[in-house]
Amino acid sequence: DIQMTQSPSSLSASVKDRVTITCRASQSISSYLNWYQQKPGKAPKLLIYAASSLQSGVPSRFGGSGSGTDFTLTISSLQPEDFATYYCQQSYSTPYTFGQGTKLEIK
Amino acid sequence: EVQLVESGGGLVQPGGSLRLSCAASGFTFSGFWMSWVRQAPGRGLEWVANIKDDGSEKYYVDSVKGRFTISRDNAKNSLYLQMNSLRAEDTAVYYCARRRGGGSWDYWGQGTLVTVSS
């Protein structure tokens, strides 16, 4: 199975900050990497697919990059509604696996 | 508008069975692979199973193989998850999700809670 490791596990930041979350795969997954946002009690929401493609309706302050084993999610200017938990997910091969999550909290 | 609505969750004893359903609307259901993804209380996300658009291919995480069965009825726009021999570690919110090409999930249901406990 492909292991996905996110860092950091938690992060405190302020509104308007630039934030970067990283995700590392245990083997190359090309660009088969997706990012989700989840708020408490809600279903996950797709933000970025194929490593760098912005899902329709997602604000342009969200961006993704990387290929192979190392990936990043960047939020260019944090908004109050962005405080949530973020997950990366590989779709290169089954079993599809997620990172452990990064909880983004207000400083 | 795409909608996915799960039902069928509840409290079940260890070793018991439960069948989850997911009613889909707002898109051509028969044109998409579908999935079940679960989340144990306070934990991260775990992919459970995929089914091809025509139902001809199915894939499972190892921990549920032989116990869970994913199926679909394209005439009824419905996805199912039959769960047998349930264990405490199967306790989770179960989401159905539409799998887009490339393997990401672009639409999710609201989830249904399954609790396995005596």
What features would you highlight for this structure?
heterodimer; A: 107 residues; 7-stranded mixed sheet; 0% helix; globular; B: 7-stranded mixed sheet
Textual characterization of the structure:
The complex is a heterodimer of chains A (about 110) and B (about 120). With about 110 residues, chain A is mainly beta. Chain A has strands at about 5, 10-15, 20-25, 35-40, 45-50, 55, 60-65, 70-75, 85-90, 95-100, 100-105. Chain A contains no helices and 11 strands. In chain A, the strands form 2 sheets. In chain A, strands 2, 4, 5, 6, 9, 10 and 11 form a 7-stranded mixed sheet that branches. Chain A has a 4-stranded antiparallel sheet with strand order 1-3-8-7, with no helix packed on it. Chain A is globular. With about 120 residues, chain B is mainly β. Helices cover about 0% and strands about 55% of the residues of chain B. In chain B, a hairpin with a 4-residue loop joins strand 7 and strand 8 (about 80-85). Chain B starts with a strand and ends with a strand. The mean pLDDT of chain B is about 100. Chains A and B meet through strand 4, strand 5 and strand 10 of A and strand 5 and strand 10 of B.
